[in-house]
C-alpha cells in the first residue's frame, strides 16, 4: 500500500473521531470558560483577534464555496453545516466510542437493523425542510445538552456584560469571541430550539429528552465550574 493510499484510509478511519472531539471541544470548553468569566481568545482591540477572525471566516467561506461551486444554494450549505454538527455530537461520537471499546475488547461490535420505511408525514416534513426528531433519547440528549449549555453561557454573559460594562470593566471586549461562538452555535442549530420549545407536533423533541438534557447540562456546568474556579 502506497503512502497516499495509506493516508486516504487513515483519514477515513480517523475523521469521525476528529470531528466529534473538535465539535464537542468547541461546543463546551469556550462556553464553560465564558460561564465562569475566563477569556480564551484575544480581545477585540488585540491585533491577534484578526488572526482568529480570518481563520473562522476562511473555514466558513471554504465550505460555502464548495457548495456554491457545485450549483447548490445557500440553504443547502446551511443544512450541510448543521447536519455536520449534528452528526459530530451523535453518530460520530457513538460510532467512535463503539469502535474504541471494540478494539479494547470491552464490547463486541453489534448491528441492529432499523426501520427505513418513511410515512407520508415524514416525506412532507422533508419536503418542507423541517427536522423530524422521532429518534432515540440517546441521540437527542447530546444535541439538546449542547444547546442548553450554550444558551446558559450566552445569556449569563449578556447579563454580566450589561452589569460590568456599567462599571467600566469592558466585559464585552474580553468575551466577545466566546459570546459570538455561543450565539453562532445557537443560530446554526435553531431547528433544535424550535423542536424543543416551539413545535408541538409528534415529530418535535419529547419533553422527557429535554428534561434529561437539563440534568446533563446542569451537571456539565457544575463540573466545569469546579474545575475552572
Structural write-up:
This protein has 9 helices and no strands. By secondary structure, the chain is an all-alpha fold. The longest helix has 33 residues, at 3-35. The model has no long low-confidence stretch (mean pLDDT 86).
Write the layout of secondary structure elements.
Elements: H1 3-35, H2 48-69, H3 74-89, H4 91-103, H5 120-128, H6 137-166, H7 171-188, H8 190-198, H9 207-228
List the helices and strands in order: HHHHHHHHH
**Unreliable segments of 5+ consecutive residues:** none
Give the overall shape, derived from the CA principal axes: globular
Radius of gyration: 20 Å
Query: What number is the mean pLDDT?
Result: 86
Which range does the strand content fall in?
A: under 5%
Q: Tell me the number of helical segments per DSSP (H or I, 4 or more residues long).
A: 9
Span between N and C termini? Answer: 50 Å
* Number of strand segments: 0
- Helical residue percent band: over 70%
Main pleated-sheet profile: none
Q: Based on helices, strands and strand pairing, what is the structural class?
A: mainly alpha
Amino acid at each position: 500500500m502506497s503512502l497516499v493510499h495509506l493516508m486516504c484510509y487513515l483519514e477515513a478511519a480517523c475523521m469521525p473521531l476528529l470531528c466529534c472531539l473538535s465539535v464537542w471541544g468547541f461546543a463546551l470548553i469556550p462556553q464553560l470558560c465564558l460561564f465562569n468569566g475566563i477569556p480564551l481568545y484575544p480581545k477585540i482591540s488585540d491585533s491577534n483577534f484578526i488572526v482568529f477572525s480570518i481563520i473562522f471566516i476562511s473555514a466558513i467561506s471554504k465550505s460555502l464555496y464548495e457548495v456554491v461551486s457545485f450549483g447548490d444554494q445557500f440553504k443547502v450549505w446551511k443544512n450541510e453545516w448543521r447536519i455536520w454538527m449534528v452528526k459530530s455530537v451523535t453518530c460520530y461520537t457513538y460510532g467512535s466510542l463503539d469502535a474504541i471499546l471494540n478494539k479494547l475488547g470491552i464490547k463486541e461490535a453489534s448491528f441492529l437493523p432499523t426501520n427505513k420505511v418513511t410515512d407520508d408525514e415524514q416525506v412532507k416534513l422533508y419536503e418542507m425542510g423541517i427536522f423530524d426528531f422521532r429518534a432515540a433519547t440517546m441521540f437527542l440528549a447530546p444535541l439538546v445538552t449542547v444547546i442548553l449549555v450554550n444558551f446558559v453561557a450566552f445569556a449569563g454573559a449578556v447579563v454580566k456584560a450589561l452589569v460590568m460594562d456599567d462599571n467600566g470593566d469592558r466585559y464585552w471586549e474580553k468575551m466577545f469571541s466566546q459570546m459570538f461562538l455561543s450565539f453562532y452555535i445557537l443560530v446554526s442549530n435553531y431547528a433544535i430550539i424550535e423542536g424543543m420549545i416551539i413545535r408541538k407536533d409528534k415529530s418535535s423533541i419529547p419533553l422527557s429528552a429535554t428534561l434529561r438534557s437539563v440534568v446533563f447540562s446542569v451537571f456539565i456546568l457544575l463540573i466545569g465550574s469546579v474545575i475552572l474556579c
